[in-house]
């Protein structure tokens, strides 16, 4: 593995879904960041980034969560998040929340400027490449927030090409929403199901063994649909495969 220097102090923002549903993603993030030469801390007391409140119009609640999160994440060289949607909330939407707050805007902007989605951080900032092996074929779904708000597209694919034995197969509509959309899937279940049905059909048509993506919410949505339809495709967060943890239970198999 290539280990650049010097060693930055990185705050790992784990995210709610990873903490509650798929802790393996957090351990994979920790493993890769340390392999990339980072000193990793997981700030105690971190909770939700506030995205559900923000998306639901609960601005006061979102501001309160953002203030708590900013206070926890200050004092580190970088903030790294294994989720494009949560990283985008901090990097893009926190400064918007405090646009007219002269006391908090500089603090929000400072944290936002050093917040990265994990695969973009490993690829672009650290220039790191994995030294892992997995004999499998995989297809990749580009989650909406990471793609459209952070420009995460090529970075995970460059990292995955470093996994010996892994072959990437194209996915029709790889940039099309999976239908999760945070609270969208709860508010509009019929529309969400129609969208994920098309996505599941495209995943099966790819003839890949594995479905990979960078957001656990999207992966849970797609994995659930694939399982209900009897598909044999197994879903993993891409960082699990990059970290050499893609041979364990897939999402939904360890519930």
Question: Secondary structure elements and their pairing?
Answer:
Layout: E1 9-12, H1 16-20, H2 23-35, E2 39-41, H3 51-55, H4 59-73, E3 78-81, H5 84-97, H6 105-113, E4 115-117, H7 118-125, E5 133-140, H8 144-150, H9 154-160, E6 164-169, H10 184-187, H11 189-205, E7 210-213, H12 216-228, E8 234-237, H13 238-242
Parallel strand pairs: 1-2, 1-3, 3-4, 5-6, 5-7, 7-8
Description of the structure:
With 255 residues, the chain is of the alpha/beta class. The protein has 2 domains: 9-123, no CATH class; 132-242, Rossmann fold (3-Layer(aba) Sandwich). Helices cover 48% and strands 14% of the residues. The protein has helices at residues 16-20, 23-35, 51-55, 59-73, 84-97, 105-113, 118-125, 144-150, 154-160, 184-187, 189-205, 216-228, 238-242; strands spanning 9-12, 39-41, 78-81, 115-117, 133-140, 164-169, 210-213, 234-237. Strand 7 (210-213), helix 12 (216-228) and strand 8 (234-237) form a beta-alpha-beta unit. Helix 5 packs antiparallel against helix 6 (105-113), helix 5 packs across helix 8 (144-150) and helix 11 (189-205) packs across helix 12 (216-228).
């Amino acid at each position: 593995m290539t280990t650049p220097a010097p060693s930055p102090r990185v705050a790992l923002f784990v995210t709610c879904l990873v903490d509650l549903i798929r802790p393996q993603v957090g351990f994979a993030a920790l493993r890769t960041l340390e392999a990339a030469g980072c000193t990793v801390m997981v700030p105690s007391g971190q909770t939700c980034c506030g995205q559900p409140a923000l998306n639901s119009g609960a601005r006061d609640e979102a501001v309160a969560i953002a203030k708590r999160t900013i206070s926890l994440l200050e004092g580190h060289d970088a903030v790294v998040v294994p989720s494009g949607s949560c990283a985008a909330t901090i990097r893009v939407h926190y400064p918007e929340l405090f646009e007219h707050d002269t006391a908090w805007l500089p603090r929000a902007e400072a944290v936002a400027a050093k917040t990265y989605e994990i695969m973009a951080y490993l690829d672009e900032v650290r220039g790191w490449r994995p030294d892992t092996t997995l004999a499998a074929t995989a297809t990749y779904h580009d989650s909406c927030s990471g793609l459209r708000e952070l420009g995460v597209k090529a970075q995970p694919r460059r990292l995955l090409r470093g996994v010996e034995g892994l072959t990437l197969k194209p996915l029709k509509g790889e940039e099309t929403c999976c239908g999760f959309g945070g609270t969208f899937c709860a508010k509009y279940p019929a529309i969400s199901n129609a969208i994920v049905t098309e996505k599941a059909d495209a995943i099966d048509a790819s003839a890949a063994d594995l479905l990979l993506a960078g957001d656990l919410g999207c992966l849970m949505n797609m994995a659930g649909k694939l399982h209900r339809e009897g598909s044999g495709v197994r879903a993993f967060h891409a960082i699990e495969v990059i970290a050499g943890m893609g041979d364990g239970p897939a999402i939904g198999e360890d519930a």
